[in-house]
Amino acid sequence: MGLFASIKSKLTFISQRYGRTLTLLAVVLFLTFDFIALSLNVWLSYRIEAAAININLSGRQRMLSQRLVKNLLMMENAYTNEEVYSAALAELRETYKRFDLTLDSFHRGGRTLSAENNVIEVAPLTSAATTQIVQQALLEWSPLRQKVRQLIGREYDQLLLQQAIDVAQRKNLSLLDLMNKLTVELEHETQAEAMSIRFYQGLAFFLAIINFSLAILMYRLRVRKANHSLDFVGNIMNQVAAGILVADESGKIIRANKLVENMTGYLMTELQGRRVNSILYEHEGEMYGVRKVGEQYHCQVEVSQVLIGNRPATVYTIIDDSQQQAQQQELTLLAYHDQLTDLPNRHLFNDRLSVEIKHALRRNEKIALLFIDLNGFKGVNDRYGHKFGDLLLGRVAVRMKQTVRDSDTVARLGGDEFTLLITDIHSYDMCKTLVDKVMDAICKPYLIQEVLVEVGASIGVACFPDDATNEQELLSLADKAMYSSKATGESCITFASDWLSYKPEKLQVDQN
Questions:
Q1: Burial of 410 (0-12, 13-18, 19+ CB in 10 A)
Q2: Enclosing H/E stretch for 248
Q3: Strand 280-283, strand 286-290: pairing
Q4: What is the Cα–Cα distance from 351 to 399, expressed in whole angstroms?
Q5: CA–CA separation, 241 vs 249, rounded Å?
Q6: Calpha distance 172→61 (Å, rounded)
Q7: Taking the mean position of all CA atoms in its chain, how far away is CA 342?
Q8: Are 369 and 461 in contact (CB under 8 A)?
Q9: HSE (CB half, 13 Å, CA atoms) of 450?
Q10: Where is mean pLDDT largest: 42-46, 298-302, 305-309?
C-alpha cells in the first residue's frame, strides 16, 4: 500500500505541475500514431496495387509464350497461303513485342503494354529470388528472341520458320515454368510485405492506445484536482482523435465526446442513459457499432476501468475502421478475382486445385481439370474492338458458370484462356458428358450489341488421379491436351489419356 500511495502521490504532483503540457503532448502523440497507422494503410494499398500489376503481367507472359508457339505453327500450316501467313506473322510480331517489353521491364524497369494497349510503368524486380528467375528467363528467351526477330523481318523464309519452331518447342516449357515460378514468388513477396506493414500498423495502434491510456490517467488526476469537473473532461475528450464513451457501473452512458456523436448519429442528450450494448456489440471476436439509422460498422474498441468521484466507471475508446476494412476486402477481391469476368484468377484457382486434390485423396474421388482456349476470339476482337471482346469474354464466363455445378470452379487465367475444375467425377462417361455440355455452351452464337458472333473452343482434359498424381503433372497434361486440340484448327476436346495413348512421340518432344 505504501508503494502504491507513493506512486499515486508522484503522479498527482506531475499532473498538477505539468498537466497541461503532458495533456497536449499526449494528444499530439496520439494523433501522430494515428497518422502513422493511416499512412501505412495507404502505403499497403499502393504496394498491393503495384504487386497485382506485376502478378497479372507475369501470368500474361505465360499466355504470350504459348501464343508465340501457336503463331509459329499456324504460319507453318498456312505457308502456301500468303494472306493467312501474313496475318499470322503480324500476330507473331505483336505477341513478340509484348513478351519482350514485359520481360525487359521486369529486368531493368520501363514501360510495357496492357491488354488494351495502354502504357504501363513497371519498376524492376529487385528481390534475389525474382531477379534470379528473370535472369534465367532472359537466358531461355534469348535464342528464341533472335530467331523470331529474324523471322518477322522477312517474308516466306521456310528454313528460318522451321528453325524458330524448333527453338520455340524446346524453350516454351522452360519459359512457362519460369513465369509460373515468378508469379508464385511475387505472390509470396506481396503476402510477406503486407504482413510486415500490418505488424507496424498494429504497433502504431498499440502505442496510440498506451499513450491514450496514460492520457486518461492524467485526465483523471486533473479531474480529481478540479473537483471532478465533467466539463473539463469533456473538453479534453473532444480534443482526442477517437471516440470516447464513459459508462457507469450499470453500463449506462454518462458521457461521450463529439466524435461518438458523429459516429453514431445520436446527440449527447440521446446518448446519456442509453446502455452501451445498444450501440456497441461483439460478434465472433470482432467489435461493431450501430448507428442511429440502424447501419452497422466495424470498429476497434479499447476498454479501461477508472474511478470518477470514487465511483467505478468504464471508458471505451472507439475507432471507426469500417473504411479500412472495406478497402482491405476490396484489395483481397482484386488479388483473387479477375476484374473483367469476376471469375477466380490464377492464384485463387491454384489454391482451390490444391484443396480439391487433397479432398479427392481423402475421399478416394476423381476430379477433372480443363484448359480452355477460345477459337476465333482474336478475329472478333480485331473486328469489333476490345470493349466488344471484353463483353464476349464476360458472356463466355457466364455460360460456363451456368453450365457447371456450384461445386465446380471456373477461372480465367488471362486473355481468352479459361480453366475449369470439375469435382466428384464417377466415370469417364460422366466427365465426357459434362465437358461436351461446356463445349456446346461456349459454341452457341452470342448476340452482343445487336451483333451475332460465334467462337469455338479448344479444350484439354486431364483427370486426377488417372492421368496424374500431383498438381504440376495435372496442369501440364491438361495444357498439352489443350494445345493438341488447338493444333487441329477446329473446336475440339482432347483427353490427356487419349493423347498419351496415341501421341507418345509428341510427349517425348515436349518433355525434352
A1: buried
A2: strand 243-248
A3: antiparallel
A4: 23
A5: 25
A6: 11
A7: 12
A8: yes
A9: 0
A10: 298-302
Most confident range, picked from 164-173, 479-488, 497-506: 479-488
The side-by-side arrangement of strands in the sheet containing 311-320 is 253-256, 243-248, 311-320, 296-308, 286-290, 280-283
Count how many Cα atoms sit within 13 Å of the Cα of residue 318 in the half-sphere of its side chain.
31
Per-residue burial over 202-234, b = 16 or more CB atoms within 10 Å of its CB, e = otherwise:
eebbebbbebbebbbbbbbbbbbeeeeeeeebb
Q: Which grid coordinates belong to 470? A: 500431383
Strands annotated E in 323-455? 366-375, 409-414, 417-425, 446-448, 451-453
Beta-carbon count within 10 A of 147 CB: 19
**Cα 403 to chain center, whole Å?**
26
What pLDDT, on a 0 to 100 scale, did the predictor assign at position 376?
92
Q: What is the pLDDT of residues 78-87, one digit of tens each?
A: 777 878 888 8
Residue with cell 520455340: 168
Q: Could you say which DSSP state residue 123 is in?
A: P
User: Can you tell me the distance from the alpha carbon of 433 to that of 101, in angstroms, rounded to the nearest whole number?
Assistant: 42
- d(CA 480, CA 494) in angstroms, rounded, equals 9
Cis peptide before 143 (omega within 30 of 0): no
- As a whole number of angstroms, the distance between CA 301 and CA 290 comes to 13
**Which pTM was predicted?**
0.44
Banded model confidence at residue 107, pLDDT cuts 50, 70, 90? confident
Lowest mean pLDDT among 56-60, 154-158, 356-360, 387-391: 154-158
Amino acid at 16: Q
Look up cell 457501473; give the residue: 249
CA nearest 323: which of 45, 52, 50? 45
What are the phi and psi torsion angles at 404 (to 5°)?
-90, 175
Distance CA 301, CA 354 (A): 38
Max CA distance (Å), the chain: 103
Stated as kind and residue range, the H or E segment containing 500 is: helix 496-502
CB neighbour class for 294 (10 Å; exposed up to 12, middle 13-18, buried from 19): exposed
Q: Strand 492-495 to strand 456-464: parallel, antiparallel, or no bridges (unpaired)?
A: parallel
CA angle 59, 98, 57 (to 5 degrees): 25
Q: Hey, what long-range contacts does 495-502 have (CB within 8 A, 24 or more apart)?
A: 495/432, 495/461, 495/462, 495/463, 496/460, 496/461, 496/462, 496/463, 496/467, 496/468, 497/463, 497/466, 497/467, 499/460, 500/467
Q: Coil, helix or strand for 61?
A: helix
